[in-house]
């Protein structure tokens, strides 16, 4: 009997943990986000259903390449998430488009709330993620191919070719969140103190200042 109870407990625990590992499930057909309501909930409160329209479920912002303004990185991420498409609220999915100039980089980052899957629209791309035991999993993916970055793991993409590259990304969250390591550590507000960064990377504070200045530019 105790054995059966233990199995039931393990199954329940696995189900609960699994169930919470992604956006909460929906309880109605649609819940188009009403970000102006002023009510704070996990996600957004719903617009009155009589007010919803096709435009709430539509976005053309990733139909064309994004403008690459960061010449150092040479990449541009254009989101297509609940902030752009209010109808995504409670649906647990979103997309993005990433455009790369020749040799462009989408620098190391994580998504705290989603696994990401990319589809290469054009060109080829070196992609990589790093497990929590610091194993690097990497591959070159080409037009029409797909690659997956597991939720919460550090990953990046580098165009190692002299041609532009674009990918479409899909996420199992309406708002996956992105935290870039370099930006988080060196451009936070208020800042992470120089002594902490110098000790973390075993460099002197002068070099910390140099990195901060380079990222702020
Ligand atoms: C790519 O990794 C992205 O998050 O858009
Ligand atoms: Mn990503």
UniProtKB/TrEMBL annotation:
One of its GO terms (biological process) is plasmodesmata-mediated intercellular transport. Mn(2+) binds at residues 109, 111, 116, 155. Keywords: Apoplast, Disulfide bond, Manganese, Metal-binding, Secreted, Signal. Residues 60-209 form the Cupin type-1 domain. Oxalate binds at residues 106, 111, 116. It is found in: Secreted, Extracellular space, Apoplast. This is Germin-like protein. It comes from Chenopodium quinoa (Quinoa). The gene is LOC110693852.
């Amino acid at each position: 009997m105790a054995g059966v109870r233990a199995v039931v407990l393990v199954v329940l625990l696995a189900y609960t943990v699994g169930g919470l590992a992604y956006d909460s499930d929906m309880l109605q057909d649609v819940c188009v986000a009403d970000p102006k309501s002023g009510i704070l909930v996990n996600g957004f409160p719903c617009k009155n259903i009589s007010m919803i329209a096709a435009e709430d479920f539509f976005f053309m912002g990733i139909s064309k390449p994004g403008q690459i303004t960061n010449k150092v990185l040479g990449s541009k991420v254009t989101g297509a998430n609940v902030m752009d498409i209010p109808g995504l609220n409670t649906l647990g999915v979103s997309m993005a488009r990433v455009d790369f100039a020749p040799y462009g980089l989408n620098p190391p980052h994580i998504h705290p709330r989603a696994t990401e899957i990319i589809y290469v629209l054009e060109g080829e791309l070196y992609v990589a993620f790093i497990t929590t035991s610091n194993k690097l999993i990497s591959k070159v993916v080409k037009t029409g191919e797909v690659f997956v970055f597991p939720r919460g793991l550090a990953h990046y993409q580098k165009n190692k070719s002299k041609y532009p590259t674009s990918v479409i990304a899909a996420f199992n969250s309406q708002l996956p969140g992105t935290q870039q390591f370099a930006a988080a550590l060196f451009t936070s507000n208020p800042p992470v103190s120089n002594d902490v960064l110098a000790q973390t990377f075993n460099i002197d504070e002068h070099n910390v200042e140099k990195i901060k200045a380079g990222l702020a530019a």
